[in-house]
TrEMBL record:
Species the sequence originates in: Vannielia litorea
Organism ancestry: Bacteria, Pseudomonadati, Pseudomonadota, Alphaproteobacteria, Rhodobacterales
Matching Gene3D superfamilies: 3.30.300.30, N-terminal domain of ligase-like
Domain AMP-binding enzyme C-terminal, first and last residues per copy: 510-588
Domain AMP-dependent synthetase/ligase: 65-444
Any GO CC annotation of this UniProt entry: intracellular organelle lumen
Name under which the protein is recorded: Propionyl-CoA synthetase
GO molecular function: propionate-CoA ligase activity
Length: 632
């Protein structure tokens, strides 16, 4: 069957489609049906089934006689080390860790925060939680203590599992002081913390609260897999919203298993036993879905890569890893390829490696620009597939499903909707638009299995953020169009969320931090185009009347403040002081116009502007930062 047939089969009978997709999963009790309509646009999938994620990702492969297959390859050009863990080793390690967590009181439904770098122990911690029905919430290592504290207060974890440190090129990231700071700051306190001591930094443990990863596992009874209901939350993953309070995306167990397993063959075209590599971080949804869960559920070998596309040691690292570990399908963010292209535009390092096992490359996390795609196609000589999805969905909304059929690539488009997703372009009034017309991208409800059913402890916010604007649809927050052939094009966000190097960040959260500076009366943060990172944040600061401090001093403090409060990942390095911000007469800051000016794009002075002269002041301020950039 080709793509059109598969999509039509889903549309004709979604229930049958998903029940069939559920067949390869090992159920403790098979679900009686796929979709559970709870009314009022709330849905669950396979809710009355009983199942365990860890069993499906680990134990069943051992039971099936594949215990000696490598489950995880850790490749760290930063520590110059490589290590392989077989499925049987993984089962034993995870069962013991789960047993130790249980012995310290962790039970089904308890939350466990995981704050770890790119080491296999991060995956083991996730799987150990899944084994006993605990709900994990992984926090990305590039966030600061304050962001961790916010997540601790929202998830209210009984335990936190952390490493002593992370390793960035040329710098040790001191996780433990960040963790201690976050716990001090948070209102909720975990019962205990498990600390994995890395040899690069041994952290000081807090007596009575912290236990050592190895020590607390000593002599414990390994835990068996605990079957959970299909609608039991497997994890919570926080993502940026329009304010400083991140949204806790909930992932239910059964839909997650079924959908991810389906994607491995149909989208990524890998067979069990083959090597799959997603060069992302476990702290992002790509890491959850395609470093940890999907490859293991499907019986693949997954790679945990602790390095960067360039500088560890050079722009040939990706090719080395692909060659050495015989990677079949490779997944990365366009920004990573842009970094490689900048260092090695002619691909001289590509030729040094045998990439004959590589069948396809997948890009996501941000819009893939045509230059980057054509460069990668030329260098690697395999299909380079852009695909589009979100933290909320957990897997591809639109893709070129190579495992079903290789569709023609249209540059600038992540191709076509996947089964499960009825994607529509809507006008402001919620009416479907014609092919080629630009509008809001929405998905007709219900969303398919594995997508978010709600937000953690925040159902009203879930409804408001995603369901209310277009009744009967999920609002993606992206704008775009669908062409005559059904190909989707993602053009922009409809809110103030920006995408920096594939990291989704809230300008609202940065504004909250800047506004807390004692000299800042008012501020705005926008995302400006960046040749490498796609977008970077830029801040405009209005200082309090009477503040006579040198502007560059205040700017420096503001940059430091964002790094301290949100983290280095915000990449907030550009800011300037202005007298006033351009606003409409009703007081809305004209961020869109400011973005156009900074990007050197044509713009119309909005009819509702309060004082058009302020746009000239913004232009002058931008010039001091070198914007618009010459190349833009
Ligand atoms: C499809 C659904 C989704 O969208 S899920 C999200 C998908 N996105 C991704 O997978 C992210 C892709 N991007 C990347 O992997 C990185 O940005 C790549 C391309 C590797 C470049 O990394 P890097 O050179 O560190 O730049 P960056 O902009 O990411 O980092 C900015 C500053 O943050 C720091 N940082 C980064 N990661 C960590 C970490 N885990 N722990 C601590 N710090 C971290 C970087 O060191 C950098 O710091 P500095 O400002 O240079 O001092």
């Amino acid at each position: 069957m080709g793509y059109k047939d598969v999509y039509a089969a889903w549309k004709a009978d979604p229930e049958a489609f998903w029940m069939q997709a559920a067949e390869p999963i090992d159920w403790d009790r098979k679900p009686s049906k796929a979709l559970f309509d709870k009314g009022d646009h709330m849905y669950e999938w396979f809710a009355d089934g009983m199942v365990n994620t860890c069993w499906n990702a680990v134990d069943r492969h051992v039971e099936a006689g594949r215990g000696e297959q490598t489950a995880i390859i850790h490749d760290s050009p930063i520590t110059h080390s490589k290590r392989e863990i077989t499925y049987v080793e993984l089962r034993n390690r995870v069962a013991t860790l789960a047993g130790a967590l249980r012995a310290k009181g962790i039970e089904k439904g308890d939350r466990v925060i995981i704050y770890m770098p790119m080491i296999p122990e991060a995956l083991e911690a996730m799987l150990a939680c899944a084994r006993i029905g605990a709900i994990h919430s992984v926090v990305f290592g590039g966030f600061a203590a304050n962001e961790l504290a916010v997540r601790i207060d929202d998830a209210r974890p009984k335990a936190i599992i952390a490493a002593s440190c992370g390793l960035e090129p040329g710098r040790v990231v001191h996780y433990k002081p960040l963790l201690d700071g976050a716990i001090d700051q948070a209102t909720h306190k975990p019962d205990f913390c498990v600390i994995f001591q890395r040899e690069q930094e041994v952290a000081r443990l807090v007596e009575g609260r912290d236990v050592n990863w190895h020590g607390f596992q000593y002599g414990v009874e390994p835990a068996e897999c605990v079957p959970v209901e299909g609608n039991h939350p497997a994890y919570i993953l926080y993502t940026s919203g329009t304010t400083g309070q991140p949204k806790g995306v909930v992932r239910h167990t059964a839909g997650h298993l079924v959908a991810l397993n389906w994607t491995m063959k149909n989208v990524y075209n890998v067979n069990p036993g083959e090597v799959f590599w997603a060069a992302s971080d476990v702290g992002w949804v790509v890491g959850h879905s395609y470093i940890t869960y999907a490859p293991l559920i499907h019986g693949n070998t997954t790679i945990v890569f602790e390095g960067k596309p360039v500088g560890t040691p050079d722009a040939g690292t990706f090719w080395r890893v692909i060659a050495e570990h015989k990677v079949r399908s490779f997944f990365t963010a366009p920004t990573a390829f842009r970094a490689v292209k900048r260092e090695d535009p002619k691909g001289e390092l590509v030729g040094k490696y045998d990439l004959s096992h590589l069948r396809a490359v997948y890009l996501a996390g941000e819009r893939a620009d045509p230059d980057t795609i054509t460069w990668a196609q030329r260098m690697l000589n395999v299909p380079v597939i852009d695909h589009w999805w979100q933290t909320e969905t957990g897997y591809a909304i639109a893709a070129n499903p190579l495992g079903i059929e290789e569709l023609p690539v249209k540059l600038g488009s992540p191709s076509v909707p996947m089964p499960g997703y009825d994607v529509q372009i809507l006008d402001e009034g919620g009416h479907p638009m014609k092919p080629g017309e630009l509008g809001a991208i929405a998905i007709k409800l219900p969303l398919p299995p594995g997508t978010l059913p709600t937000l953690w402890n925040a159902e009203p916010r879930y409804r408001k953020s995603y369901l209310e604007h277009f009744p009967g649809y999920y609002e993606t927050g992206d704008a775009g169009m669908i062409d005559e052939d059904g190909y989707l094009y993602i053009m922009a966000r409809t809110d103030d969320v920006i995408n920096v190097a594939g990291h989704r960040l809230s300008t609202g959260a940065m504004e909250e931090v800047l506004a807390a500076h004692t000299d800042v009366a008012e501020c705005a943060v926008i995302g400006v185009s960046d040749a490498l990172k796609g977008q970077v944040p830029m801040g405009f600061l209005c200082l309090n009347a009477g503040c006579n401090r040198p502007h560059d001093e205040v700017v420096r403090e503001c940059v430091t403040l964002v790094r301290e409060k949100i983290g280095p990942v915000a990449a907030f390095k550009l800011a300037c002081v202005v007298d006033r911000l351009p606003k409409t007469r009703s007081g809305k800051i004209l961020r869109g116009t400011m973005v156009s000016i900074a990007d050197g794009k044509a713009y119309k002075t909005p009819a509702t502007i309060d004082d058009p002269a302020i746009l000239d002041e913004i232009k002058e301020a931008l010039a001091t930062l070198g914007y618009p950039e010459k190349a833009a």
